[in-house]
Amino acid sequence: PRPWWWWRFWLGQVHCPEEEIALGPACWLWDYLRRSGSSGFLLPLSGGADSSSTAAIVGSMCQLAVKAIAAGDETVLADARRIGQYEPGAAVDDAADLAGRLFHTTYMGTVNSSADTRSRAKALAQQIGAYHVDCSIDSLVGCVVALFTAITGKTPRFRVDGGSSAENLALQNIQARLRMVVAFLLAQLLPWVRGRGGFLLVLGSANVDETLRGYLTKYDCSSADINPIGGISKADLRRFLRWAALHLGYSALAGVEAAPPTAELEPLREGMPPQSDEVDMGMSYEELGLFGRLRKVTRCGPVAMFRQACQVWRDAYTPQQAADKVKHFFKFYAINRHKATVLTPSYHAESYSPDDNRFDHRQFLYNAAWPWQFKRIDQLAAALPQQQQQQQQQRHKCQAQQR
């Protein structure tokens, strides 16, 4: 059956959820970009669903900007020429060319990365028109491990090589955190490399489900300047990928959506299954989405969530199985609560959000030019000397009358 909003969508009154993802965050990114004074974005593009969704949203942003310019929007044209550093009077009529000027992507591979994700990242960047950098960070990882060995006299090993869980997790986190460092380095210097001015904003790509569960490395590539998918679930992102492959013209997204989600932080060994996000989390993304809605939207605690889960899963799991899943979620939800306090500012369009910093209703994005406020300051500053002179004359007059 068609969803409840279908008739309104048919009449052109609302967008379907996939269109909302393509349009809402894209407009948010453009508004941030034009007001921040930066000259573009940099995205660590892994070839996975989350970062590819973020890349597609930036591509949608460029398409929307070109459409607005074609419709005669002079403000968008002026902003695009300034941000893209076009020649005066140059036409801005190609979304891929605009993306090539302001959108930068980088694939930061290691020995644990696959050729599939590398090729998907490159193909998607080419279809969008982004300036893409493919690099290996194995040398950095090796230096950090060597430093640890020099300090402690011990060398950590992955689980598949006989290491403990602590060693295995630490070696994964080294890779993730070094990617964040390299991303910010590239964001500062890629414009210089290309002979351009300015700096780039780093885009994060952590979805709402993994953030709520805490399935991310603190201060890895989820730590960025802004995150356009921070309020979007994994299930919605996968539907968006299928939609965008057809409607945005980025066919590489179909291969991204079909691939199983994996962090690619552990080495592959013959006879061993590849790393899987759902196995690492101990729950499926469908289950995680349910937990997230019950926790953030309906405000369920462990007991209330268990009761709700028993109803939802009455034909799939026994009460004991449901209890184990709920307890597993809340265990890691509690352990990883500290990560929620340092989340990258995100686009939020619904109450399903893990962001702990939403109680301060002042916006976090301000126009760096402060046009009205600075103009008012200039007006007051210009009028102040005359006011002071009038006040001084009034004091002299009062003193004369008192004599």
Structural overview:
- By secondary structure, the protein is mainly α.
- Helix content is 58%, strand content 5%.
- The protein is built from 17 helices and four strands.
- It has helices spanning 6-10, 17-36, 49-70, 74-84, 95-102, 115-128, 138-152, 165-193, 208-213, 234-247, 252-258, 277-281, 285-297, 302-312, 319-335, 337-340, 371-402, and strands at 41-44, 103-109, 131-136, 201-202.
- It has a four-stranded parallel sheet with strand order 3-2-1-4, sandwiched between helices.
- Helix 6 (115-128) links the parallel strand 2 (103-109) and strand 3 (131-136).
- The chain is globular.
- It starts with 5 loop residues before the first helix and ends with a helix.
Largest beta-sheet characterization:
4 strands, parallel
Task: Output the structural class.
Answer: mainly alpha
How far is the N terminus from the C terminus? 93 Å
Main sheet strand line-up: 3-2-1-4
Radius of gyration: 26 Å
Query: Percent of residues in beta strands?
Result: under 5%
What is the mean predicted local confidence, pLDDT? 89
| Molecular shape | globular
Give the H and E element order.
HHEHHHEHEHHEHHHHHHHHH
| Percentage of residues in helical conformation | 55-70%
The helix count comes to 17
The low-confidence runs, each spanning 5 or more residues with pLDDT under 50, are: none
Q: How many β strands by DSSP?
A: 4
Topology record:
Blueprint: H1 6-10, H2 17-36, E1 41-44, H3 49-70, H4 74-84, H5 95-102, E2 103-109, H6 115-128, E3 131-136, H7 138-152, H8 165-193, E4 201-202, H9 208-213, H10 234-247, H11 252-258, H12 277-281, H13 285-297, H14 302-312, H15 319-335, H16 337-340, H17 371-402
Parallel strand pairs: 1-2, 1-4, 2-3
